[in-house]
Amino acid sequence: MMHTERVKDRTVTKTWSAGLYLRLSRDDDKYESESISSQRDILQDFVRRNPDITVFDIYVDDGFTGTNFDRPDFKRMEDDLRAKRINCIIVKDLSRFARNCIEIGNYLSILFPYLKTRFICVNDNVDSYLDPESLDNISTKFKNLINDEYCRDISVKVKSSLTI
């Protein structure tokens, strides 16, 4: 579905140049390549159903933690965002974007609005353009908190197994 906006007595179709972001930590799944392929398929299917979105590039961080943003393709995607090559980021779900609720909040509440970036989480029904409230609802906040806590829990379990 195309989205139009009125600009000084003319109708403009809003189009989006998207970066598809895929991430998988070694701790998340032992079948990394299958999960990355699955994420790619889900996002490409979403784009096919939304003709106002074109894919600029696909960014893949396979084997990188979501607890920080020190990931090579994430940095490349952020560079493309700041250079205005993309204005939309699409992820399968919030946990693929990151597992650090404070930093996610900084991106969703500060950086993306500042850069006029549309943010879409396909499986979590988050779309900052079509449904801005979806970024700030309790469900989204709760999912981010659970994703963050998952990493803490895994870390504690790994550390305790190493001390035995």
Helix content: 40-55%
How much of the sequence is in beta strands?
Answer: 15-25%
Write down the secondary-structure element order: EEEHEHEHHEEH
Give a count of the beta strands, DSSP E runs of length 2 or more: 7
In angstroms, what separates the terminal alpha carbons? 56 Å
Major sheet: 5 strands, mixed
Based on CA inertia axes, which overall geometry fits? globular
With strands numbered from the N-terminus, the spatial order across the biggest sheet is: 4-3-5-6-7
Give the averaged pLDDT, no decimals. Answer: 81
How do the strands and helices of this protein lay out in sequence?
Elements: E1 3-7, E2 10-14, E3 16-24, H1 32-48, E4 53-62, H2 72-82, E5 88-91, H3 94-97, H4 101-114, E6 118-121, E7 126-127, H5 138-162
Parallel strand pairs: 3-4, 3-5, 5-6
Antiparallel strand pairs: 1-2, 6-7
Q: What does this entry show, briefly?
A:
This protein is α/β, with parallel strands linked by helices and 164 residues long. The protein is 43% helix and 24% strand.
Explain what the structure shows.
With 164 residues, this protein is of the alpha/beta class. 43% of the residues lie in helices and 24% in strands. The protein is built from 5 helices and 7 strands, in the order βββαβαβααββα. It has helices spanning 32-48, 72-82, 94-97, 101-114, 138-162, and strands at 3-7, 10-14, 16-24, 53-62, 88-91, 118-121, 126-127. Strand 1 and strand 2 form a beta hairpin. The chain starts with a strand and ends with a helix.
